[in-house]
Amino acid sequence: MGLELQVNVDLPLDASGLHLSLRGRFDRVTRGAASTVVVGDYKSAGRLPRHVEPAGILKGHRIQMPLYVLMAEKLAASWGVEGAAASAEVIGVGPEHVAGLTPDETGTGEPPGRAELPAEKFDEIRAGFMETLRVLHALAEGGRFPLREGDRCRYCPYDRACRRLHAPSVARIASAPGMRHFQLLDGKSTRARTLAEVDGARAKELP
Description:
Elements: E1 2-12, E2 19-31, E3 37-43, H1 54-59, H2 64-75, E4 86-92, E5 114-117, H3 119-141, H4 167-175, H5 180-185, H6 195-205
Parallel strand pairs: 3-4
Antiparallel strand pairs: 1-2, 2-3, 4-5
């Protein structure tokens, strides 16, 4: 359907009119089975399934591919496939992802060098992901960008100056107004997809 497509989308976050204004470029858009729209993104390195793992999506660690699904749903009519379900795929390019060299780590039988976020899989976590987006949007709108340790810390050029491991700084962030929901995000999983479910699970763990 297209390559290197420039897109602009106003993405609703709830029924009140809250929205995200997004713009970007899809590496490729194709027709999938049963008239689905598939947005593909090329990656030259790294473990591809990480980009589509539900737990990482719910926590807000990996939001690119689910955002692509939501954007594609909004754009489907302009592509002549109004109402079509949308999915996203990560496609490995370059030596690291040559077929036969990268093992299938997805557990789905997908060929090496490819990982997919299918429409039906995204639908299972859609509500939880939309809630996560609202939490992140509220933080950004309020000018609050809390510290969060993750795998990207290994590549950050400011690692030595970062205070993510400074206990007083971490404690101040945890107790700051509006931070509670952000703290709960890391407890999300496929078994606890919403903040309420995470909160309930933690309450049961208390003595």
